Structures are given as C-alpha cells and as structure tokens.
C-alpha cells in the first residue's frame, strides 16, 4: 500500500475483519428468502440497527405493488418485504448511491440454512457471498470513510427483492439513482477478484394461451389445444435466438385429463438482450411470433412481462469509474481484472438512469444460488478498504474526465 498518502493510510488503518465477519455470520443465520416476509422483516431490523451508526436517516420503504401470473392464467398480487434506505448529507452538491439486497434465493424451508467452515479462508453458507458479506463490508467501508471529514452525500438502498428482479423496488432504485455522480453495488466478485463490466438486459414473461376444450375422442377437431399452441410458441421463440440475444422457454403450465383437449396453457420464458437495440428487436419478435401462433392454432395469447433489467453497456463515464477503482485496488495490492458477464442485477437499473455503476464491489466467492455457495473471508476487510478508498477519492478527486 505504498501508493497511499498519509491521509489515506490513516483512513484505512481501523478497518478490521473480525467485526465484518461477525455481521456476516449473524445475518447469514437469518433466512431471508425473497418470499419469507418474517425473515426479511428480521433482516431489515438488524440492518437498520447496524447502519444507524452512520450519520443520516434510516427508513424502511413500502414495496411497490407487484402481480404475477398464476397457474390458472390470472394475475395475482405478490407480497414483498420492506426496502431499507439510508440518506446521508442529502443536501450535498455531489452524491453517490450504494446498493445491495437483503434477500436470498433460499426459501424458508430450504435445506441450506447454516454456515460451515471449509478451511481457514472459505466459508460455506447461505447468502454469505450473495450478499450478506457484501452488506457487512459496505457498512465497514462507509464507517471508515466517515472518519475523514467527508463531503460527499450518499444514499444506501438495500432492497428485499433483487433475486426476483427488483420489481417492487425498481421505481425506488430509479428515484434514488437519478442525478448521482456514481454508483457502487455490492454483488459478489469472482474468487480471483474479477469484476463485471457489461451486462445484458433481462426480461421475464408469461404468455397465457387460451384455446377451446373438447372431448379428445369424440370431437377433438372442435377443440383448440392450448398446450400444443404454447409448445409451438416455445419452439418459435427458441428459434429466434441470435448473436447478443438469448431466449429461454423455461416452463409450460396447463393441461388436464388425457381425454380433454386443454383450453389453457401458460408459457414462461426469459430473454436477455445484449443491447437496447436488441431489446427492441426482441419486443418486435415476440409480437410477430404471438400473432403467427395465434392465427395458426386459432387461440388467444396474452403476454405479460417486459425487459425489467435494461442492458448495461460500457459508457465513457463507466470506464472512468472502472479506472478510478482499478487504481485504488492496485494501490491496495488488490490488482483486478474485468470481464463481461451474462448475469443481471440492480446495476442494470442504475445504469439505465445514466449513472456510471460498478456492481461487483462485494465479497469474493462462488457457487452462488446453490448449497455450495462460499465466501472468502479475507476479502471482507480487503473490499471494505477498497470501498472506503473509492469513496474518499470520489470525494477528493471526483470522476476523471
């Protein structure tokens, strides 16, 4: 850390691993699967208490209404947990947003509920990397930054629904991100320290296919088979894959007794466009294929969904932020590399607001979304120092042109 000046060395000296790890273990012990409202409430309470050590106001924000197509083709409300917001120096001329999520992919009844040490620097546990370790080190980094006469204002947003697309927090993300000079999101980095650059967009869809029932033996010709139509829709969408645009038909719900022509089916599918132009291409493709299948099978098709995570290309401002973080990491002895990724996160939503974002500032780890999920504890204090240094340099220097 010889490239650090005396002020920066003093800023980072108090950062220690033990309290960050303690928070990580305590928070990983709380099941906060996106649908576990009790667990999310407990997690939000713990986070509110912990982040109250920072100056500013902590508040819990009601989730926006969200609906989902059920197995009967009907829109049903989906409940979500509250989102946590901390606002520090809201009147500051220059402001930053830092984001994370309190939810995990592991529901209340999932078998993966406890942390286990694999070795001295590998912790297996639910949400340890994605992203309770990230939340803990974000807090430690901001606490260190606050000791050096800071002038930047910032908002911290920790939402409760990132793992299912941030549908109940998307408007809140946009509200808090708009006008910020930069954004840091604490998704996990890869085990070797690599950080994400460009990301595709993502949209989840449900196509409700309504046909006509009939007796499968006596008068099948009078029926309009919704399952067959949904299958044709899936095949045609799958054939629409092109460079920079993936389409994944994931599930078909519907059907019934073998002797009845089914009159209802729901096709669930996901698409990932690499650019905004491909997102528009995908929209037109869906419209065209839906019209073709409707006519070919004499059925009605209603499509629900949209690209809720816009594509995140690399802009000059984002490149400038990457450069600032790269230099800070190198000065800390944490040289890193960058790579494009196929995953999506709240960084996509922030980038769509015109804000440069680095969205893998969290703990290092791997095998996320599985019982093999692991975190590297030595990255906790390392990334907390990086967070503090990046905030300090954004404060003192701003983003280079």
Please characterize this protein's 3D structure.
- The structure is a single chain.
- The chain folds into 2 domains: 6-199 and 312-397, Zn peptidases (Aminopeptidase, 3-Layer(aba) Sandwich); 202-309, Alpha-Beta Plaits (2-Layer Sandwich), CATH 3.30.70.
- Helix content is 34%, strand content 24%.
- It has 10 helices and 20 strands.
- A 6-stranded mixed beta sheet has the order 1-4-8-5-9-18, sandwiched between helices. The chain has a 4-stranded antiparallel beta sheet with strand order 6-7-20-19, covered by helices on one side. A 4-stranded antiparallel beta sheet has the order 13-15-11-16.
- It is elongated and about 85 Å long.
Q: Percent of residues in helical segments? A: 25-40%
CATH class designation of the largest domain: Alpha Beta
Please, how many helices?
Answer: 10
What is the straight-line distance between the termini?
A: 25 Å
Gist?
With 401 residues, this protein is an alpha+beta fold.
Structure keywords:
401 residues; alpha+beta; Alpha-Beta Plaits; four-stranded antiparallel sheet; 34% helix
Give a topology summary.
Elements: H1 6-12, H2 17-28, H3 37-51, E1 57-61, E2 67-69, E3 75-77, E4 83-88, E5 95-101, E6 116-119, E7 122-124, H4 128-145, E8 153-159, H5 170-177, E9 182-185, E10 195-196, E11 202-210, E12 214-215, H6 226-239, E13 245-254, E14 260-261, E15 264-273, H7 276-297, E16 300-309, H8 316-331, E17 338-339, H9 346-351, E18 357-358, E19 365-366, E20 374-375, H10 378-397
Helix pairs in contact: 2-4, 4-10, 6-7, 8-10
């Amino acid at each position: 850390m010889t490239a650090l000046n005396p002020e920066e060395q003093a800023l980072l000296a108090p950062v220690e691993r033990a309290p960050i790890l303690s928070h990580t273990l305590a928070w990983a012990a709380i099941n906060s699967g996106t649908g576990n409202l009790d667990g999310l409430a407990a997690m939000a309470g713990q986070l509110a208490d912990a982040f109250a050590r920072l100056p500013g106001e902590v508040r819990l924000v009601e989730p926006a209404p969200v609906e989902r197509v059920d197995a009967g083709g009907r829109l049903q409300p989906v409940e979500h947990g509250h989102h946590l917001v901390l606002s520090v120096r809201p009147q500051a001329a220059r402001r930053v947003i830092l984001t994370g999520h309190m939810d995990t992919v592991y529901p209340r009844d999932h078998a993966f509920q406890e942390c286990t040490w694999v070795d001295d620097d590998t912790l297996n546990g639910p949400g340890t990397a994605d992203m309770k370790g990230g939340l803990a080190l974000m807090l430690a980094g901001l606490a260190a930054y606050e000791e050096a006469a800071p002038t930047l204002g910032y908002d911290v947003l920790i939402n409760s629904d990132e793992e299912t697309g941030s549908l109940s927090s998307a408007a809140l993300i946009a509200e808090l991100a708009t006008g910020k000079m930069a954004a840091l999101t604490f998704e996990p980095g890869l085990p070797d320290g690599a950080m994400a650059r460009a990301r595709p967009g993502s949209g989840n869809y449900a196509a409700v296919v309504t046909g006509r029932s009939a007796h499968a033996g006596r008068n099948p010709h009078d029926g309009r088979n919704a399952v067959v139509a949904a299958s044709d829709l899936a095949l045609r969408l799958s054939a629409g894959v092109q460079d920079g645009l993936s389409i994944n038909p994931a599930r078909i719900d519907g059907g019934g007794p073998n002797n009845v022509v089914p009159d209802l089916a729901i096709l669930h599918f996901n698409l990932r466009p690499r650019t905004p132009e491909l997102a528009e291409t995908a929209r037109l493709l869906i419209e065209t294929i839906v019209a073709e299948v409707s006519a070919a099978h004499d059925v009605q098709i209603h499509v629900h969904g949209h690209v809720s995570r816009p594509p995140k290309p690399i802009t000059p401002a984002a490149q400038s932020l990457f450069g600032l973080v790269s230099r800070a990491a190198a000065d800390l002895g944490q040289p890193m590399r960058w790579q494009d990724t196929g995953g999506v996160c709240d960084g996509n939503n922030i980038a769509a607001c015109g804000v440069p974002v680095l969205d893998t500032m969290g703990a290092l780890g791997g095998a996320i979304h599985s019982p093999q999920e692991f975190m590297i504890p030595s990255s906790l204090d390392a990334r907390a120092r990086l967070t503090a240094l990046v905030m300090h340099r954004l404060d003192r220097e701003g983003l280079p042109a």
